[in-house]
Please model this.
Amino acid sequence: MTPPSTQALPPGQHELASFPRFGMWMFARYRPQQPAPGTLHLRGDVQRELTLPSILDGLPRREQISDFHCVTTWSRRSVHWGGVLFADFYRQVIQAQAGPHPDTRFVVMRGQDGYRSCLLLEDLLQPDVLLADQLNGQPLTAEHGAPLRLVAPAQYGYKSVKHLTRIELRVADPGFRPAGFAFMDHPRARVALEERGRWVPAWLLRQLYRPLVAPTVKRFARDWPTQPPS
Ligand SMILES: Nc1nc2c(c(=O)[nH]1)N[C@H]1C(S)=C(S)[C@@H](COP(=O)(O)O)O[C@H]1N2
Ligand SMILES: [Mo]
Model:
């Protein structure tokens, strides 16, 4: 397992003392319907589309401690995840069973709540990108993305889709439309390069987003139903 981070935070980030439930406001009230392990649908430029009932079975398990950086400027250090490497899933399941196009470059991921993000396959194949079903040694809670979520620590948190249910592989740019405004979505969203969004400079996005952190944390805590909807 990788040791806890002792590095300085990336530019424009500040540390939070807890790991809040967070996201886009329109998804605040959502609670996942699918129990673990969840069904994953693989679609797009593949020879065979797949519907996978429990995708982590048979893959080598990984534990990882990594920092989590939200684009709105908060960071949570040393988050302990468990799951499988996306790269292992890609090679041992997708390549073995689905026959992806060899020129695949883009991957669109969707959550059960309708949230979505688009990543470069190249970024997903890095050795710290997980499909996680555990947090702090326990099964992943609904709050943090059960039954399964992406964890891409080098990318801002908005790429790490919770309640993951669909993966779409694309050779050509899929013309991805994010759940929010287009300026909020950078194609790579690398934290180290402060790729917060596009067209709007990072320093301005910091200032736009910072005042939203506290109200969003509050809202995501308040709108979280204690009972699943009947
Ligand atoms: N399904 C889904 N995934 C999502 C979001 C969301 O609203 N819905 N929000 C994203 C954002 S902006 C962040 S910062 C992280 C927050 O993850 P957390 O709730 O575990 O802190 O989830 C990301 N993945
Ligand atoms: Mo975020």
In short: The chain has one domain: 34-216. The mean pLDDT is 93.
